[in-house]
């Protein structure tokens, strides 16, 4: 098992490269993989099957990391038994080895190094918080599971009684067979019935507990993620976060349920059946104690081989799904480049591979089944319980698994030794029957326990990943702090001596002793070269980040002392270049700016934003659903809905971050009209690329190298003949080309 940051190394060939890319990207400038990655393209491997040297290097590193990691996960079974649960937390950490690559400065190649990424601990007290509300149901489930296991121990003994009646009747042929057999038979049937009821009871309760714990975890984790700073999202990929919400919690839930039901049952049965075995025949028990571990070991070895095959087959299915997912998710790009055929080829290649691997798995299971059948004594179990997922068509091999491999040995051995004991009257035939059934139960339980260890490790690993984010505290708190009453808020903003580096790039100072004042109800435009830090200024005003040094003030108060949800929710309206809409109705999207707004307020905001006319031209009007991220609307329409969304809260300060730069001339004109109306009577910060759009601003500040180097009105700055007039000249020249 590999943990490459968030353990999803092995999904698709491209995504393997991407995982490496993300990991290297995370660690900042010293990683050079991004250049390799971009020059080769993410699909180079899967689509051409002749990977470019760069991608093949990434790929071979990935594979090496995978091999390295998977060998670590194959802990010898015996060791697991010896060390037991005490090592589980540690082994969970061991499994978290992270492989990543680093640029070798001397020869410019990638070398594999060991990660120093801290591995999260499993926090039992957090688990307790989730389990506490379900404690009653959990205790009931444990009691029922325990009861079912105890009854299971009784079954071999009752079977023995039954066989003794049959044997006596055969031997002596006296008495009434029916009345003699009735008692033990009814007892046995009753026992099976009660055991069935107990089993159903604990499964119902456990699934209730598991589902509720998982649902609570999901809600709490989601709430915790939403609380995190923007810097957190800079450092973590969305896919990884979603994975913690879905796959990790799912894995944890399965392990939780399995460990309690299966673990409790297997341990109780093993101990109970061993006691029964000892009571029935201490001599035969001695023999079993010597032989059984070898048989369980052999069964577990073959089982682990099949599980490995199964895991590889599943990963291959995931690879194929990944290719389809990527192609369908980016269907517009695929179509725009007429790449349908190539995507189909990539998908077909991965699907064929998965087909081949599943066929191999089917063959492996078939051989195992054959060997087990030859072993005479069968215990039929579900594959899935043992972590083997088989997609093979043949139901006779996909539904059943005979785990106690080489049973013939123990069965024949027991019958041979038991027969000797029967002939010397040391044992009855019923005892032999009881012994055989009880020893099978022990064997099956031990096999389950060995597999459960792996499940516990996986559960602890995924639980630790979930809990890591649950206990994470944001540095910028959403609530708490003061509010300025609406009637006394002027909307003056001061950036005083701000220095700032993004947390993901601490060495790179974006703003250096930056100073700027936004006077109340005035429009200030910030212009400058791309990457000069203009959007960063807006991000600091929104408090997406706090400055490294210096202070941002609102009406003379440090914004760090103000209530952030009030600041973002009521004071600042933010409109950026690529407005993101939610896949709900237009009405809901505009209301996102003020959840308690009436329909009339929504319509009024839409009118201010020049959006009312086009909205009412749709058949469903304000109830029109806008599709995923607003895909069914044009750029200009999306932007006007975003403006309405910002205006509905009637903000005192409006931040426009390149709000019209992605639009064509006609859309820009309509949106600009809406913006001109929207900015009246508010403090406005405009971040602009196209200098033509900000010529009417009260103040234009030119940024260079992280600070303001020129400031004035359009005409003043032109008169200076400095950087601003240079920018104007350059844009004019570009426009004429
Ligand atoms: N989230 C981030 N994490 C790390 N660095 C960032 C982040 N956002 C921006 N940067 C870096 O900060 C610098 C300033 O970026 P910013 O987006 O503020 O520039 P800009 O002037 O708005 O550029 P443009 O006009 O191209 O939008 C750039 O070097 C950029 O790479």
Automatic annotation (TrEMBL):
Q: Where in the cell is it found?
A: Mitochondrion inner membrane
Domain ABC transmembrane type-1: from-to ranges: 141-458
Q: Is rRNA processing one of the keywords?
A: no
Keyword flag Membrane: yes
Q: Any transmembrane segments, and where?
A: 135-155, 189-209, 263-281, 287-306
Protein's membrane topology: Multi-pass membrane protein
Family annotation (Pfam families): ABC_membrane, ABC_tran
Recorded hits in CDD domains, A to Z, give:
ABC_6TM_ABCB8_like (cd18574), ABC_MTABC3_MDL1_MDL2 (cd03249)
GO molecular function terms here? ABC-type oligopeptide transporter activity; ATP binding; ATP hydrolysis activity
Q: Which keywords does this chain's UniProt record carry?
A: ATP-binding, Ion transport, Membrane, Mitochondrion, Mitochondrion inner membrane, Nucleotide-binding, Potassium, Potassium transport, Transit peptide, Transmembrane, Transmembrane helix, Transport
Q: SMART domains from the xrefs? A: AAA
Query: Would you kindly state one Gene Ontology biological process term found in this protein's UniProt entry?
Result: potassium ion transport
- GO CC aspect terms: mitochondrial inner membrane
Q: Which residues form the ABC transporter domain?
A: 493-730
Task: Identify its protein family.
Answer: Belongs to the ABC transporter superfamily. ABCB family. Multidrug resistance exporter (TC 3.A.1.201) subfamily.
**Protein name according to UniProt:** Mitochondrial potassium channel ATP-binding subunit
| Protein's organism | Nothobranchius furzeri
Q: What is the lineage of its organism?
A: Eukaryota, Metazoa, Chordata, Craniata, Vertebrata
This protein's gene is called ABCB8
């Amino acid at each position: 098992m590999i943990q490459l940051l968030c353990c999803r190394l092995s999904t698709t060939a491209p995504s393997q490269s991407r995982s490496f890319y993300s990991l290297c990207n995370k660690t900042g400038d010293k990683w050079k993989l991004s250049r390799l990655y971009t020059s080769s393209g993410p699909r180079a491997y899967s689509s051409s099957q002749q990977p470019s040297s760069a991608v093949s290097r990434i790929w071979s590193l990935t594979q090496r990391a995978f091999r390295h990691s998977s060998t670590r996960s194959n802990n010898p079974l015996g060791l697991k038994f010896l060390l037991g649960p005490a090592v589980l937390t540690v082994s969970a950490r061991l499994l978290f080895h992270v492989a990543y690559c680093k640029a070798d400065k001397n020869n410019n190649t990638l070398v594999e190094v060991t990660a120093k990424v801290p591995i999260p601990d499993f926090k039992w007290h957090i688990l307790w918080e989730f389990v506490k509300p379900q404690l009653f149901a959990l205790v009931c489930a444990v009691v029922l599971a325990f009861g079912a296991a105890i009854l299971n121990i009784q079954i071999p003994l009752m079977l023995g009684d039954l066989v003794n009646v049959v044997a006596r009747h055969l031997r002596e042929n006296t008495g009434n067979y029916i009345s003699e057999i009735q008692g033990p038979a009814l007892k046995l049937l009753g026992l099976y019935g009660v055991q069935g009821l107990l089993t159903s009871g604990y499964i119902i309760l456990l699934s209730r507990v598991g589902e509720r714990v998982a649902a609570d975890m999901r809600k709490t984790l989601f709430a915790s993620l939403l609380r995190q700073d923007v810097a957190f999202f800079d450092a973590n990929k969305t896919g990884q976060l979603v994975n913690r919400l879905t796959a990790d919690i799912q894995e944890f839930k399965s392990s939780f349920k399995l460990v309690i039901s299966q673990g409790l049952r297997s341990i109780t049965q093993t101990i109970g059946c061993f006691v029964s075995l000892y009571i029935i025949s201490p001599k035969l028990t001695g023999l079993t104690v010597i032989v059984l571990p070898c048989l369980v070991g052999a069964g577990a070895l073959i089982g682990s081989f099949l599980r490995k095959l199964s895991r590889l087959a599943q990963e291959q299915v995931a690879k194929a799904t990944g290719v389809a997912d990527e192609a369908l998710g980016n269907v517009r790009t695929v179509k725009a480049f007429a790449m349908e055929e190539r995507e189909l080829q990539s998908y077909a290649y991965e699907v064929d591979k998965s087909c081949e691997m599943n066929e191999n798995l089917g063959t492996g299971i078939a051989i195992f089944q054959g060997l087990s059948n030859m072993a005479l004594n069968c215990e039929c179990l579900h594959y899935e319980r043992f972590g083997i997922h088989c997609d093979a068509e043949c139901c006779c091999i996909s539904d059943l698994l005979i785990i106690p491999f080489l049973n013939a040995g123990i069965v024949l051995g027991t019958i041979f030794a038991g027969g000797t004991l029967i002939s010397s009257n040391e044992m009855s035939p019923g005892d032999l029957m009881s012994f055989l059934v009880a020893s099978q139960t022990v064997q099956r339980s031990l096999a389950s326990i060995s597999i459960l260890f792996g499940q516990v490790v996986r559960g602890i690993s995924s639980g630790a990943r979930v809990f890591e984010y649950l206990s994470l505290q944001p540095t910028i708190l959403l609530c708490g702090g003061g509010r300025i009453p609406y009637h006394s808020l002027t909307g003056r903003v001061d950036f005083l001596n701000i220095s700032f580096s993004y947390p993901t790039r601490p060495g790179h100072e974006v703003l250096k002793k930056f100073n700027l004042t936004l006077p109340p109800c005035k429009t200030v435009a910030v212009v400058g070269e791309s990457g000069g830090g203009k959007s960063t200024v807006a991000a600091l005003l929104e408090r997406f980040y706090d400055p490294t040094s210096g202070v941002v003030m609102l009406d003379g108060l440090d914004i760090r002392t103000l209530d952030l949800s009030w600041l973002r929710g009521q004071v600042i309206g933010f409109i950026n270049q690529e407005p993101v809409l939610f896949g709900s109705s237009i009405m809901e999207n505009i209301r996102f700016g003020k959840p308690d707004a009436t329909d009339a307020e929504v319509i009024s905001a839409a009118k201010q934003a020049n959006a009312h006319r086009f909205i009412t031209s749709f058949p469903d009007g304000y109830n029109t659903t806008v599709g995923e991220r607003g895909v069914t609307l044009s750029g200009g329409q999306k932007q006007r809905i975003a403006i309405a969304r910002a205006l509905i809260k009637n903000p005192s300060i409006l931040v426009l971050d390149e709000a019209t730069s992605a639009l064509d001339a006609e859309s820009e004109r309509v949106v600009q009209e809406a913006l001109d109306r929207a900015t009246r009577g508010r403090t406005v910060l405009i971040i602009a690329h196209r200098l033509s759009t900000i010529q009417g601003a009260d103040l234009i500040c030119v940024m260079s190298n992280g600070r303001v180097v020129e400031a004035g009105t359009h005409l003043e700055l032109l008169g200076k003949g400095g950087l601003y007039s240079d920018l104007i000249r350059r844009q004019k020249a570009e426009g004429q080309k």
